[in-house]
Amino acid sequence: MSKRTYDILIIGSGSAGFSAAEAASSLGARVCVVESGKLGGECPNVACVPSKALLAAARAFRLAQEIKLFGMTAGTPSFQFEEIVKYRDRVVEKITGGGVHGARYERMLKELSVDVVYGKAEFEDDYTVIVDGLRLEAKAIVIATGSTDFIPDIPGLDQIHFWHWYDALSKKRQPKSMAIIGGGPVACEIATLYATFGTRIVLIQQSTQLLSREDEECARFVEDRLRAMGVDVVTGANVSNIVDGRGGVYGVHVDVEGIKTMHAVEQVVVATGKRARTQGLEAASLKLDASGAIVVTKEQQTNKKHLFAAGDVCGGIMLTNTAHHEGYVAGYNAALVALNKRSKKIVRDLRVIPCVTFVEPEFASVGMTATVVKKRFGSVLIGRSDISSLGRSLADHAPDGIVKLVAHPKTRKILGGCIVGPHAGEMIHELALAIFANLSIDKLSEMIHAFPTYSEAVSNAASQLTLE
């Protein structure tokens, strides 16, 4: 068996792994990345990028349907789903560079003098990894193996050809009807996408609200908007079983507080979350938490001082932006260990994590919810502003929306917020910066905002406060 030796070995080339490679190579470490699939991980290849391309097409189709509102006329808008899929593929190719593994990412790693080995990695011991007969040894290792789908134990699910969430973003055909099991960001985005193009959707969520980790008031806007698009939203529901009916139709049996219904659909999509991918890591003897994720310190260090981990494999908030941040911390600190540098390790800072769900209109949030603040401090200072009354909103014929700010009841420091409306994903960073800079809610009301913009709603919300 042939052998190679490096300072740093990184398992996985997703957001965390790629960032770790950049950090480690910047300190002069000899780095090798092991990847079992395409470089870049799921986000550019099957998740974030293709979904946003498809949702952009859906947004364009909605605008075409509303063109008369702006005093224009055109033919009845139509689409061919196959052509929309081609647009998605072109976007993915632009960001990845195309090719078997992702030519753009291959060039980037080459420029960093980082080697790449393709294949599935398995630990032989905590310093050695075997990849298809090749032994790779390193002074320090970063584990960035990502996550796998969590598939609920639903009777009959394993007997049908259901789609994983990423299948709904990669298929070339459009089902006439679809049941989506799950009510998180991915499920809501898939519902928005297919409902726009005419698929009959039933969205089945076990929790009593969609986007269950988010502010309830803002999440209701999303639910109401999906219903307005024709989506059958069923919350507080358990899928009791699924049967394979005749004629290519599945029967999805749902129980809501004892009331049983059956939904006949052409396709079932499972979007019920993810869990850490730790297969092949057993020989490293890493400490795992109750969910099976790798336990790490703020330095992204595991229970072995030369082994680090970052991204989804560590559990917690599984987002591309957090994975990138954790990956950099892990790669940098791993390089310090491998190169025997005495510099102080850096630590992760996840105090401020902006999140965006690309529904219509967008939903964005950052920091604590009002419920969390009230539970922690006894009361909460809340500022609200309606987006639909803004001059910009009226000019754009935008849907209803809200800006909700959450602040400490005594210090008035901004602790969180959520936005539902056009460009919410861009607007949320004003709130994120305010939290990061430890600003009071009064500073937002004092700052001049451009007119007419959607961001005016942030200033308006900061000026209309109630103690709850």
Please, could you describe this protein's structure?
The protein has about 475 residues and is of the alpha/beta class. It folds into three domains: about 5-40 and about 100-150 and about 275-340, 3-Layer(bba) Sandwich (FAD/NAD(P)-binding domain), CATH 3.50.50.60; about 155-270, 3-Layer(bba) Sandwich (FAD/NAD(P)-binding domain), CATH 3.50.50.60; about 360-465, Enolase-like, domain 1. About 30% of the residues lie in helices and about 25% in strands. It has 13 helices and 23 strands. The protein has helices at about 15-25, 40-45, 50-65, 80-95, 105-110, 185-195, 215-230, 320-340, 370-375, 390-395, 425-435, 440-445, 455-465, and strands at about 5-10, 30-35, 115-120, 120-125, 130, 135-145, 145-150, 165, 175-180, 200-205, 230-235, 240-245, 250-255, 260-265, 265-270, 275, 305-310, 355, 365, 380-385, 400-405, 415-420, 465. Strands 1, 2, 3, 4, 5, 6 and 17 form a seven-stranded mixed β-sheet that branches. Helix 1 (about 15-25) runs parallel beside helix 8, helix 3 packs across helix 4 (about 80-95) and helix 3 packs parallel to helix 6 (about 185-195). It is globular and about 70 Å long.
Q: Name the CATH superfamily assignment of the largest domain.
A: FAD/NAD(P)-binding domain
Strand runs, count = 23
Helix content: 25-40%
Which structural class matches the secondary elements? Answer: alpha/beta
Rg is 24 Å
Overall pLDDT metric:
97
CATH class of the largest domain: Alpha Beta
Oligomer: single chain
* Spatial shape: globular
Percentage of β-strand residues: 15-25%
